[in-house]
Amino acid sequence: MNNRFGTTLSENSLTVIPPKSGWTMTGFQELKDYRDLFYFLVWRDIKTLYAQTILGFMWAILQPLVQIVIFTIIFGNVAKVSTDGIPYLLFSSVALIPWTYISLATVQSSQSLIQGSSMLGKIYFPRLIFPITPVLAKLVDFGISMFIIVCIMLYYRVSLTSNLFFFPLFLVMMVSIPLGIGTWLATLAIRFRDVRQAMPLFIQMLMFSAPIVYSASSIPEQYRFLYSLNPIVGVIEGFRACLLGFPIPWLHIWPGMVTAAMLVISGTVYFKRMERIIVDVI
């Protein structure tokens, strides 16, 4: 009897599908073959997040909105942080929305293998589906929370420019960050449970290492290249340039793009290398 994934099962035979060798990347065709499971897990994450809540998807707007208001009061009105002439409400919202996505997707992706351990030893499927699932599921929250930016831009009468053409590029860069970091941390979390305990500190360090509450122009020029290696810097600078119409600082964005690409490639390779022992360790 043939099952839906092409393996052959009968009373006298069983085809076992072993994981690929350590340095073999998961093919797009294999992920495509398991797309139904992929869709199921993504939809499950979306539904369970707001299950039995009164506000439902409104939490996707309320959570970043409260953070934006708090940051505006503390850093904009009290500390009076320089924002290069941009109203702090607008300045912070354009940064906090992508940052909220990156932080939440990274945390959930890093814990995906541990949380899905009950499925890992039962059937074969590309284990890479697990860290990718929350990265995609969180895009729903991101899309909803973009409504905040649109409203604030309308309030300040911000005019769109041709920079918006490059916005999809920074969306891809934004998604690649939790994908790359998540695959690394999900694999490490299997062997070292300290990863889970260290995540709050790690996320906090990432937040203050990027121009979320302050402007990147406050970084001394001699350190800008090193600073720009942080891919979150490129995402936030790109969002501000595309949505607010400022010149895109490509010189300070491409280093982060390279870092993001390296995170995805190295994270995937390391994940595939360790995939053979994931079930045994869990």
The number of distinct structural domains comes to 1
Largest sheet: none
Number of helices: 12
Instruction: Write down the secondary-structure element order.
Output: HHHHHHHHHHHH
Distance between the termini: 32 Å
Mean of all residue-level pLDDT scores: 85
Describe the structure.
- With 282 residues, this protein is mainly α.
- The chain has one domain.
- The chain is built from twelve helices and no strands.
Briefly, what is this?
Helices cover 66% and strands 0% of the residues.
What are the SSEs and their pairings?
Layout: H1 28-33, H2 35-49, H3 59-78, H4 88-110, H5 112-115, H6 117-120, H7 129-155, H8 167-191, H9 194-208, H10 224-228, H11 231-244, H12 254-281
What keyword list fits this structure?
12 helices
